[in-house]
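This entry is listed below:
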Amino acid sequence: MGDPHRRPGGPPRRPAGGRPRHRRPCHRHPHPPDRVLTTGHHPGRSRTTSTSTRPVPVVTPDTGGSGFGPKLLIPVLVGPLLNPINTTMVSVALAPISRDLGIGASQAIWLVAALYLASAIAQPTMGKLADRFGPKKVFMAGLVVVGIAGVVPEVLTGFGGAVFARVLIGIGTSSAYPAALTTLRQHSLRIGKPTPPLVLGALSITSLVSAAAGPPLGGALIAAFGWHAIFLVNVPLAAFGLVVAGLWLPSDRLRPRTDADVPVLTALDPFGMVLMTGTVSALLVFLLDITAGLWWLLGVAVVLLVALVLWELRATKPFIDVRMLARNGALSRTYVRLFLVYMLAYTMTYGFSQWVQDVAGYSSDQAGYIQLPAAVIAGIASFLIARKTAVRGPLIVAATVPIVGGLLLLGLHTGSPLVLLALAPALFGIPQALASVSNQAALYRIVPAESIGTAAGLSRTSVYIGAIAASSLIGGVFGQGPTTADLHVLGWVIVGIAVLLSALTIGDRALRERPAA
């Protein structure tokens, strides 16, 4: 007989004055194997909350909440702050190091370039290693290198020791960002929940705020302990990172694997790594001092680039997936935007810091404090945009604001009021924040999970090539020492690059058609 409480074609009727009758589950029609049911936790009963008919990865039991708690986020967020804070902390140390070691501005800029050169090569390499061996192993190994680098200038006391320490810092800190994105993507797959946008935003916020906080922190350390302190501070930071990573990062044994059957050498593509290293090294050394006339290095870079492309087209697991870059114009343009934005930002950071100290007469700590508003503005802007899904609008703002900043530089001189000196770097905190958050969110969505580490590393390589280009520009313009006229030249260059970036961003159809790109 039929259910007397069921209406034709409808759900069972509630009996008058009571609850719906309990029906035993029908075992003749089980759920299909590819259907997943998730239930909310209620005392004494279960309730279906959502269904999906798509195959999903095997997940571990979830006890509720977002699945991205403090124990995961603390090590994930601590690691990526090390590279940005070291890149900008040295900006206020160039002048005192130059005076102490008796070197010129064009030589001191190698302290900047050494870290960027090492990072530009190491970031995608560390990402590839994280994809293969697991992010926790790679991250912790990098922290050990950072800790060692912090004490190198105490042993090798000359300029060479400081440069060597910066190279080690670049290599060690390069493990953090690819490992962080890889950890988040793998954890998301493991628990069957998407990574919250604010978590991704927090990753950018941490990096941006630490980069903006580098100059004031560096200035305070130098004022209290001397310039060696900007190296030694890495020892406790690395130690803290090792502790929280060891305790709270998920074990690499739990990560989803897609290449377990692929031989290690095939998965890593070591020859591709060598070609990439040679290409980037030749290009960046050429850019470091264009006036030296080392044009043969540019030729070497071109030859190695051609060899890299030809090799990667044949590789089973390419280190640089050139086919994906050719097909995915949105990803390639993301890298170009990052290069241009950070070239602008670091031209301002390093050029302005040297001028403020050597020409305007401010001390290292005062130069750092002048740039403190940039840290606050970058943090606020990145937090606000991290909660949004829009991409095109923030990127257009990031491209156009530096035009205003460059024009402001043209009006600065030794007698300029302090408010204008603080406003100039603050204007460049906005584009860094918006470009970093928006481009990272786009990259995270459009790159396959098994390649996220390498893709994240390449995004940082774009940033560091931009920083190297900025170092080369500053070295060529300032020579043995900055002048106010030289600062104005940098202002015109910034305006020109920002106009180009604005045209590329506004004219990008992919940003209009696909906000995630």
Remarks:
- Confidence is low (pLDDT under 50) at residues 1-64.
